[in-house]
Amino acid sequence: MTQGPAHQSCLQSGGPAGIEGRTSGAAGSPLMRRTPVIGGNAVNKGSPSNAKTNEALRVLRERYRVTIANTVAAFRRLSAQLAVIASAPEVVEALRRELHRVHGSAGSFGFPEASRLAAELEDAAVRWMADPSLDSDRRAAMIADFANELEACVLGEGGAASQTPIMALNEPSPESSDSAAEPSKSERSESCPDIVIVEDDTSFVEMLRYALESSGFTFLHYATGPQALEGLLALNVGRRAPLVLLDVDLPGLDGFSLHERLRVERPGAYATVFLTARGGEAEQLRAYRAGAIDYLPKPVNLRILMAKIPTWLERSRRAGGGGSAGGGG
Description:
Structural class: alpha/beta
Mean pLDDT: 78
Low-confidence stretches: 1-44, 162-190
Helix content: 40-55%
Shape: globular
Number of helices: 11
């Protein structure tokens, strides 16, 4: 795993993570992002100004609106597949996962009604998986209606995103992109990220990236449970105890199982906060009883998230001492 210097943030993605079809890079290849630098040093960790946050929220919302056309098209494809075989388990599971993503992300970008509608249908999809005959004659129409409602919620009745150019958030300048792509060996060996994101929703990762980079934090990103497990078991954290922002509904290995593996094989190496659309009491109690330091249900408020991160990091530092890579304690 490549680790960036203190003024960089690292995104590691293992392929598509969401129906938008956006990727951060080829499988297993980290991409480096540089946070703003003042006088040659990284910006001090701290919350950005209200004006900067307001502008970021506007930009993030517009980016989400731009990507929603792909999301709507994917739901319409799933509706067409359900019209052919309404009980196909692989189609119902794919539908549940996409509904779960919209449930967690839409409200975070300022579209609470879209999140609410997705949550209701996600619950229905769970019931469909348990009872293949339930609503079998209505499933295709329900998903087609949802696609139309999602489009109206996010794009409005006109059905088109803004054509105004969208500014970049903390993107590396052309002259710095090459140097940011591959830090020196000494930088890699001496640094460890402040935060590790384990999340398969690329839209939500974009929001987290802004929150972290604007406050000067370094981070790694994994899009699947197995990738995260492999990387976090091997990462040399020293005594830093990085904070892990962990989704529950992950491809390949769910967040609870990943947390338990890390707790057993790397005791004390990481502090975990669950960020998930699963906000039920049972899930939250399970997380806290397993040692998580917090549990934040999606959709999230970006300002509240940014206010909580320094407190979480302080708690993770106090809990540090898990030590070297490869399961060492």
